[in-house]
Write a structure and sequence with these properties.
The complex is a heteropentamer of chains A (287), B (370), C (254), D (238) and E (316). Chain A contains 13 helices and 2 strands. Chain A is mostly helical and 287 residues long. The longest helix of chain A is centred in the N-terminal third of the chain and has 30 residues, at 2-31. In chain B, strands 7, 8, 9, 10, 11, 12, 13, 14 and 15 form a 9-stranded mixed sheet that branches. In chain B, strands 2-3-1-4-5-6 form a 6-stranded mixed sheet, with helices on both faces. Classes of the chains: A mainly alpha (287), B alpha/beta (370), C alpha/beta (254), D alpha/beta (238), E mainly alpha (316). Bound molecules: adenosine-5'-triphosphate (2 copies) and magnesium ion (2 copies). Chain D: This is ABC transporter ATP-binding protein.
């Protein structure tokens, strides 16, 4: 029984890390309809900035996170203006080509500037402790990530479903020309949403770095993971993404515990089963 | 004349760091020993294989031989890449100097293969003795599920059971494992007193070691044993505090205290740019170049693979890692294996501190396969 | 004559809303029926139900004596139940010629051929061009559909349905978006259909409805509220109030 | 916003490399009702799309209430008071009816949505449905209502009656008439049913292959049998 | 028709030029040929049927392992027989992945394909007795072609073998895509609902195309196994799948010509820049991809073809 609880805690924590890192992708893919394979690259940029700020400049963790998010957005703005703007509304495959190209470039540049080694982001003492749950200990950092995940989920859901901006964003995505004809400044809407998505990517990259460490190849190494959780959840749906992350996190964790040698099998068979049952994803938005 | 050496390795992609070390080792050797042998100038031609890809390796090796006209093939970080190129050697009359790939069987694939790195069996066997002698009798083995991992598991098991210990459970986990918490739970549940681990060097080692500590295994007194891939120097800055005290066995530590090594580290650090990136493939490449230079000397620059390989059989020299010999029969390197412990230096950096030496170790893997 | 197309007690709920509420309808070969009714009455849903594009909650659909309720849409088409779409559904990158040839080949069971070319099949090409000419879009045969005006796309939509040589044809607003100058073409094409074909047309253009229909069925809020002759329908108070409005006056005066 | 005038001079436009409109000039005074007629594919929709800023303009001027607007983007034109109801019912399929209407509000308070419901009670019943789940006619109502909610000073209606039940058509035309008469909007209308258009409008232009082929009053058109036959391809009006 | 004749002539001419201009690079050229078959097969399902997949290497790998295992474990070393085994294995793999992948659409479909390639990869890793696991399957020694032409160090035989295979496959595929069946597939890509309303079976048609695609990819895999005499796990990898997709989009989807041009461009470019700078070539490849999207959004072939189409229409 204790083991079950223990695995449950691990599953929850892992699922939440996945959620925090990939939710930004759900925004770009589901709402902006851009298959943004460079999502991981932005997460990685966030990680590098945070690492530089916290480790090399010795800034406080919270401050490093903030700088990472803002810095990544600043880096992303010209990329959005020059490159992404050209692929909004283009066929998915064109977007794949462009965003893979962007990923390659960012990897190359990161490798050149920071070298191929792992970069850590020193966490404050409070997050480094182990917290006892009675039946086991977990690191405080994991609990912190769970809290972040919940906060992000709630905030983002409110932003998209309840604010005027969210409605305009969804309208612009459905039919940009029509939204413009109704007075929606689609370019501004897109730019802001992109900034939000990139900011989330950076945030996820930083707080998730304990599990997915920052190195130049990060951008490609975890691309599939991000793509899978977002699509299984149903791109664009916050509850869907949350459900998918928790579910897949649980499957992955349980699989790795029960039969580690078949962990990969277990995980991908489960993915096939889920998509088989929910061909649009757990909470796919109707098209 | 110009003699060309083709070096195949991962110079981009997730293992770019290891490829970079190849180059650093080669550059260091040429910086210290000049780029000529007799009247011949040595030219290195690099070819990139980001991840294990035997077909690509074979195509590139073939291209190096027929198009670039290389007289020596070298490098090869991954076993399948080395294996794939061996059928070419005889027809092409080209020796291959393996600078990393660590599966025992490679040298048996062709009489023209010489290896200057190590084998997983070679580095994983001594740690079994260390574990048993340290009083650990029950161990769980946890390895990544691919060739080297399976080798490490077998090597440790053989050594540990021979010593009298018991491997209570052997887990193979997928290479793409991000979260090791469930594995740690398994280790806890197994009731073992120690864990033997093998993971490819790189980001996953960090996750593994952290999970080991955070899930309370370290505090619970479970011992941690691994070959030195896990604490390669270039990962240490990231591992940091978490790795402190980990004991591993390996053939080379950057901190190895010898004049040869000082010279090497200085030159290699200069070549690689950032000294913190220096790691074991560099020494494999450095010694590989030594072997190639000796081969060129022996053949006088003529292309004669058989003669070249014969010339280095039984060759002994003082490598940065210590005294080494090319075993005349297997053409694999006989060397010292060191037990090391991760320690903190005065300047706050972490390093592998050698604490015990197992002298003149051959490759037990070949014997085991027989 | 016996019914070729028979729908019994069809029912469909969307959430709590009964969009099709116990609808029964039967057509004999040669019937020309107009299905009219207020917006959102459930006309398109009815077509979707009988063609198998959505599943009913209950009820049966019989085609030529065979119960097809459990069959998928393609099976029903192959048995002669063909529809057109209210909003054009065409292959935007293909030409009208390709559209119609494909439909003809499909009808003849030759669309799976891999080592042949439709251009090399004179029968198919001739038929396709004749059909396009009849609807007045022969000059566009080689253009991409994405480049031709909406009204012309509507005509192609109809051509596709005709190419399948159906036994029962369901037309969902075939004239919507077609300018007055071209509705005549549509009428003519429908008038030229084989006499034993049963046609059901949904349309909001009352002039067209009254020229076409021998029988009018009115659907409101998912239920049939009227089934009878065109003359009778203009006199029905409920229909006038729910749907026709002053059109009924104009017509009864004329 | 009170009604504004719309003046167009020498406008040519098209799609990519294809030119569809050539040298179009006309003027619709504030509060006027103008019908744009023409056969299939003659460029009526292209004209409206061009006014709304959604095609490629090669030359010419567009003035809304005296201000040139040809240089600004679609959204800015809408914010300056240009309302556009396109021919293809462009509802936002993943938004609910209410959210669709919300987008049309521009800066108006949310409560104004009730105006749309008053106009089309059917929409109120379906307020929680997604756009994609509406019937054809309901989508048409939604598209029209959404634009009107933004209180444009010039309203471009591209076949707004398509797919609507006769009673609704009547009510809608009456409502448009009221909007124009009260001086709230200038209305430009494309309509296939020529009679409805003539009953409604106080001026008519006919497009033929992207050029203006005829201008005049509805009465003049009704009397000019020759024009009706050649330019509109209809055998006569009744 | 004539366009295809020209196409074949151009391929043959390219092949000849390659043979004489780069006699020392035939291994690379043969590899390009094998990958070209993979990309062609991907074009069948992606370009013509609109099925997004990141798992197409599963079909290629099935062909490679099929041919390799036949040779290494069953002594089937005649290259033609190995090719046949590869084609059949590929077709079967195509059938299976078709059934799975076609269950969903859009992103979930992409995910299904990713799951398939990972499962295939993992299965090959586990079945190391048959496949050699991560060390690769070695010991493939194909006989001489028709007992006459031995596979040599320079790779001449392999090259000619590959080119002949490519031309035959290309001619057959061009015919298939022009046929009524091909037209139906294009229809499905644009609007499956419409196709159903015409009485055609969407699922059945797509599965058929998937199997054909598998046969072509399997031929590519077999060629790879025959010419390099090893099969590694990389031939069943996500990376290869993704690269194939990139090559296809680079060249332009839905014409088969684009697939060829994309493959040649990408692999040749990659070879040149990675030889020129083995350390930082990824950045340059990335820049190439971005440039293509910016300046030739329909892919290299697609954009050129569109340009000439426009020119042609103006001329009329
Ligand atoms: N998937 C769905 N979910 C919920 N409601 C739906 C769905 N599809 C249709 N409806 C509702 O069912 C009703 C009937 O729609 P239908 O399309 O059949 O109307 P119609 O009679 O064809 O109208 P029109 O003349 O306007 O085309 C409409 O009110 C519509 O909103
Ligand atoms: N997206 C497009 N690309 C290229 N040409 C187009 C496009 N849309 C329309 N056209 C062409 O422009 C011309 C005018 O089309 P438009 O839609 O403006 O006609 P219309 O008068 O509104 O016709 P309808 O009465 O059918 O709605 C047509 O010849 C059409 O083929
Ligand atoms: Mg309808
Ligand atoms: Mg129009």
């Amino acid at each position: 029984m204790q083991t079950v609880f223990s695995i449950g805690v691990d599953a929850l924590a892992y699922g939440m890390v996945l959620f925090v890192i990939s939710i930004g992708l759900s925004v770009t893919m589901g709402l902006m309809r851009v298959v943004n394979l460079a999502h991981g690259a932005f997460a990685m940029i966030g990680g590098y900035i945070a690492s530089y700020a916290a480790r090399d400049l010795g800034l406080a963790y919270a401050f490093a996170v903030l700088i990472a998010v803002v810095g990544t957005i600043l880096i992303a703005i010209p990329i959005e203006r020059l490159l992404y703007r050209r692929i909004y509304g283009q066929p998915e495959l064109t977007q794949v080509l462009m965003t893979i190209g962007i990923t390659f470039c960012i990897i190359g540049i990161a490798n050149y500037i920071f070298g191929p080694t792992l970069k850590t982001i020193p966490t404050p003492e409070t997050l480094r402790q182990s917290v006892s749950l009675g039946f086991r200990t977990v690191s405080a950092h994991r609990l912190f990530v769970i809290a972040c995940g919940l906060a992000v989920a709630l905030g983002l859901w409110y932003f998209i479903e309840r604010t005027a901006f969210g409605v305009k964003l969804r309208a612009a995505v459905d039919n940009a020309a029509m939204a413009a004809a109704l007075g929606v400044k689609t370019q501004v809407v897109y730019a802001v949403s992109f900034a939000v998505a990139v900011g989330l990517a950076a945030f996820g990259g930083v707080v998730g770095a304990e599990l997915l460490p920052i190195e130049p190849y990060y951008a490609l190494r975890y691309m599939v993971t991000f793509l899978v959780v977002v699509s299984v959840g149903g791109a664009g749906s916050i509850p869907g993404a949350l459900a998918a992350c928790l579910l897949l996190g649980a499957i992955d964790t349980a699989g790795r515990y029960l039969m580690p040698e078949f962990g990969e099998f277990f995980f991908y068979l489960a993915v096939i089963a889920i998509v088989w049952i929910f061909p649009r994803g757990l909470a796919g938005r109707a098209k | 004349d110009t003699i060309k050496v083709g070096v195949v390795g991962p110079f981009s992609g997730p293992f770019a760091l290891q490829g970079k070390n190849f180059k650093a080792g080669i550059d260091a050797y040429m910086a210290l020993n000049g780029s000529t042998v007799g009247d011949d100038t040595i030219e290195i031609i690099y070819r990139d294989i980001p991840t294990a890809d035997p077909a690509q390796s074979k195509a590139l090796s073939q291209e190096l031989v027929v198009k670039e006209g290389v007289q020596y093939l070298a490098g090869f970080y991954f076993t399948p890449d080395a294996m794939a190129a061996t059928p070419l050697l005889e027809q092409a009359n080209v020796p291959m100097v393996v600078m990393n790939a660590a599966t025992s069987a490679i040298v048996t694939k062709s009489p023209f293969v010489v290896r200057t790195s190590f084998t997983t069996w070679q580095t994983s066997t001594p740690i079994a003795k260390v574990a048993f002698d340290g009083g650990t009798k029950k161990v769980i083995s946890v390895v990544s599920d691919y060739g080297p991992g399976v080798d490490a598991e077998a090597a440790f098991k053989a050594g540990f059971e021979k010593a009298g210990g018991a491997v209570v459970e052997a887990i193979r986990m997928p290479l793409q494992t991000n979260d090791f918490s469930p594995i740690m739970q398994r280790i806890k549940d197994s009731g073992a007193e120690g864990v033997f681990a093998f993971l490819p060097s790189g980001p996953t080692t960090l996750g593994f070691v952290k999970a080991f500590n955070e899930n309370g295994l370290k505090d619970a007194g479970i011992k941690f044993f691994a070959p030195g891939d896990l604490t390669q120097e270039s990962d240490l800055p990231a591992l940091g505090e978490a790795a402190l005290g980990l004991q591993t066995t390996f053939h080379y530590a950057v901190s190895h205290d010898s004049a040869e090594n000082k010279k090497f580290v200085e030159a290699a650090a200069k070549a690689i740019g950032n000294p913190a990136e220096l790691s074991f493939p560099a020494v494999g490449a450095y010694d590989g170049m030594h072997v190639i230079y000796k081969m060129i000397e022996a053949t006088g620059g003529e292309q004669d693979a058989a003669k070249a390989v014969d010339a280095v059989k039984g060759l002994s020299w003082e490598s940065p890692r210590g005294p080494v010999t090319i075993d005349p029969e297997s053409r694999h390197i006989t060397q010292n294996i060191y037990l090391r412990e991760v320690a903190k230096a005065e300047d706050g950096t972490y390093y592998n501190k050698e604490i015990q030496t197992f002298e003149k170790q051959g490759d037990p893997g070949l014997a085991a396969a027989k | 004559m016996s019914a070729i197309f028979d729908v019994r007690n069809l029912r469909k709920m969307f959430g709590g809303l009964a969009v099709t509420n116990d609808v029964s309808l039967s057509m004999a070969p040669g019937d020309r029926v107009a299905l009219i009714g207020p917006n959102g009455a459930g006309k398109t849903t009815f077509v979707n139900l009988v063609t198998g594009n959505i599943l009913p909650n209950s009820g049966t659909v019989t085609l030529g004596g065979e119960d097809v309720t459990r069959l998928g849409p393609t099976q029903r088409v192959r048995r002669g139940l063909v529809r057109s779409f209210q909003v054009t559904r065409l292959f935007s990158e293909m030409t009208p010629e390709e559209h119609v040839s494909l439909a003809i080949l499909q009808r003849e069971g030759r669309s799976g051929k891999m080592f042949a070319s439709h251009r090399a099949m004179p029968g198919v090409m001739d038929e396709a061009h004749a059909l396009l000419a009849k609807l007045g879009i022969a000059q566009l045969a080689g253009h991409r559909v994405s480049e031709i005006a909406y009204g012309q796309q509507r005509l192609l939509e109809l051509a596709l349905a005709l190419a399948l040589k159906p036994k029962v044809l369901l037309l969902d607003e075939p004239a919507a978006g077609v300018p007055q100058s071209d509705t005549a073409r549509i009428e003519q094409a429908i008038a030229d259909l084989p006499a034993d074909l049963a046609v059901l047309m949904i349309e909001h253009d009352m002039d067209l409805v009254f020229r076409f229909a021998k029988r009018v069925i009115v659907l409101a809020a998912g239920e049939i509220i009227f089934d009878g002759s065109p003359d009778a329908v203009t006199k029905d108070a409920r229909v006038r109030q729910a749907y026709l409005g002053s059109y009924a006056d104009a017509r009864s005066v004329a | 916003m009170p009604a504004a005038s719309l003046e167009i001079a020498g406008l040519s436009a098209g799609y990519g490399q294809t030119r569809v409109l050539e040298d179009i000039s006309f003027c619709a005074g504030a509060g006027r009702k103008l019908a744009v007629l023409g056969r299939n594919g003659m460029g009526k929709s292209t004209l409206f799309a061009t006014l709304a800023g959604q095609t490629k303009r090669y030359g010419g001027e567009i003035r809304l209430g005296g201000q040139p607007i040809e240089g600004i983007d679609s959204a800015s034109r809408a914010l300056k008071g240009l309302g556009y109801v396109p021919q293809s019912r462009d509802v936002f399929p993943t938004l609910t009816v209410e959210e669709n209407l919300f987008v049309g509000l521009k800066a108006r308070p949310r409560s104004a949505i009730e105006e749309a419901y008053a106009m089309f009670p059917r929409l109120k019943e379906r307020r929680k449905n997604l756009g994609s789940q509406l019937s054809g006619g309901e989508q048409q109502m939604l598209t029209t209502a959404r634009t009107i909610l933004g209180q444009p000073s010039v309203l471009l209606l591209d076949e707004p009656l398509e797919g609507l039940a006769p009673v609704i058509c009547e009510e809608l035309m009456a409502a448009f008439g009221t909007l124009a008469a009260s001086g709230e909007m200038t209305i430009l209308l494309v309509e296939q049913r020529i009679q409805s258009a003539l009953d409604f409008a106080d001026a008519v232009i006919i497009l033929e292959r992207g050029r203006i082929a005829w201008t005049g009053t509805p009465a003049a058109l009704a009397a000019d049998q020759h024009t009706v036959e050649t330019l509109l391809g209809v055998g006569g009006l009744h | 028709m004539t366009r295809d004749a020209i196409g074949v002539l151009v391929i043959a001419a390219f092949a000849l030029v390659g043979y004489f201009l780069f006699p020392n690079n035939l291994a690379l050229l043969t590899r390009i040929t094998a990958i070209a078959l993979l990309v062609l097969s991907l074009d069948l399902v992606t370009g013509y049927c609109g099925v997004a997949t990141l798992g197409h290497a599963a079909l290629f790998g099935a062909g490679a392992y099929g041919a390799g295992i036949a040779a290494a474990h069953f002594g089937i070393t005649d290259p033609i027989a190995m090719l046949a085994v590869g084609i059949v294995s590929g077709a079967i793999a195509g059938l299976i992945s078709g059934v799975v992948v076609l269950r969903a659409h859009g992103l979930p479909q992409l995910v299904l394909s990713i799951a398939i390639i990972h499962l295939a990869h993992e299965a090959a890793n586990k079945a190391s007795g048959w496949t050699g696991g991560s060390d690769g399957l070695a010991g493939i020694m194909p006989d001489a072609v028709f007992g006459l032409w031995q596979f040599d160090l320079w790779g001449r035989t392999a090259y000619v073998f590959g080119i002949v295979l490519l031309i035959v496959a290309f001619v057959i595929l061009r015919q298939i895509v022009r046929s009524p069946f091909g037209m139906l597939c294009r229809g499905i890509r644009q609007d499956p609902v419409r196709v159903r309303a015409m009485g055609a079976s969407v699922h059945g048609t797509l599965i058929k195309m998937y199997a054909i695609s598998g046969a072509v990819a399997g031929a590519g895999g077999a060629l790879n196994a025959i010419s390099t005499q090893v099969v590694g796990l990389d031939s069943l990898s996500f990376t290869l799948s993704a690269e194939a997709l990139v090559m296809l989009v680079l060249g332009g989807t839905g014409s088969l010509y684009g697939a060829l041009i994309g493959t040649i461009t990408f692999m040749w470019f990659e070879d040149v820049v990675s030889a020129a700078n083995p350390f930082h070539w990824l950045t340059i490849v990335g820049a190439l991809l971005i440039a293509v999207v910016l300046f030739a959004p329909k892919g290299l072939y697609g954009s050129v073809a569109a340009y000439f189409e426009r020119r042609g229409r103006k001329g009329r």
